[in-house]
Specification:
Blueprint: H1 10-20, H2 27-39, H3 76-91, E1 106-110, E2 116-120, H4 123-126, H5 139-142
Antiparallel strand pairs: 1-2
Length: about 140
């Protein structure tokens, strides 16, 4: 996707990788995907201020006591990786500090390339929340 190459960022590299691995798409579909990703590349940018257009609230069961799951035990090396990923996400404005009676443990999920994906295990929290029946729309419904 040459048109995404101006000022290459990790996001550009990720989108480029996704494009290259979209092997089930026809050439015309791959071309449409490349154009779409190029046109809306700013939407995927995780660096900068949080979006003012969406705010997410978790609707709990009302009278359920807060759930504070303790952190999982990890090796010092993994703890260091977690701290670095957490600090970067905080610095990028993706998350913000808060004080809450609710807590969920963080986990590192190994990726195929040997690195880790930083995740939060919300399973215990999910037991206390109401199910959201609003599902995400399919890409085809948004861009026919």
């Amino acid at each position: 996707m040459p048109h995404l190459r101006h000022g290459i960022t990790p996001l550009d590299q990720t989108l480029d990788c996704r494009y290259k691995h979209a092997t089930t798409l026809s050439e015309s579909e791959r071309s449409r995907l490349a154009n779409l990703l190029g046109e809306y590349s700013d939407v995927f940018d995780v660096v900068g201020e949080p979006t003012p257009f969406a705010e997410h609230h978790i609707d709990n069961t009302g009278n359920h006591p807060p759930i504070a799951a303790p952190p999982y035990r990890v090796t010092p090396a993994k703890k260091e990786i977690m701290r670095a990923k957490l600090d970067k996400t905080l610095a990028d404005g993706v998350i913000e500090e808060c004080e809450s009676a609710w807590a969920a443990p963080c986990v590192l999920v190994p990726k195929a390339n040997g690195t880790y994906r930083f995740c939060v295990d919300y399973r215990k929290l999910n037991t206390a929340t109401k199910t959201d029946s609003c599902s995400a729309r399919l890409l085809e419904a948004i861009h026919p």
